[in-house]
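Interim report to the steering committee. The following record documents the input for Starvation-inducible DNA-binding protein (189 residues).
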Amino acid sequence: MTNSNQNNQANTQFTVPGMDDSHADKAVAILDNRMVSLLDLSLTLKHVHWNVVGPNFIGVHEMLDPQVESVREMVDTIAERIATMGGVPVGTPKSIVDRRSWQDYSLGKALVLEHLGALDMVYNGVNGDHRKAIGKMVGLDPVSEDMLIEQLTALEQFQWFVRAHLESADGNLSTAGESTESGAASAAS
């Protein structure tokens, strides 16, 4: 197997009946990017789960596990769709790091609001990129498009759960205007 096959860059040898091979290749590349993002998100959520401290610890600690499980199911769904279309889903640790375009989550052990502020920034990136992927999937593969829409529905709800901790009674986010995890963590605390 060549390195390009390991990174899911090879052309598909087959795809689902009725789908053009070039469309399948493009759809697989889009899905591969989303798979890497969601793998990273699931690990980040678990990291926050282990490292969150302070007031409201238990509520946030317990809020994150269902998110982790749901995101892991999303990863599995995407990986199986990639395989269905003739692609090769690659989820090894090094390949994930090599294929991502963002930096590692920046907080270690931190207070609840700091982690939630940073996590809001993570969800901004994941959800924004999922929405862009949906737009790119239009005309390529309605099945994958629908799958990504369903996932984004859940991901946006998870972000809402996070933001509920960061919102004031008048509807303002404590992290408004921040663009980095560390900036959002500071603003939230």
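Residues 21-51 form the longest helix (31 residues). The committee is asked to note this result when reviewing the revised timeline.
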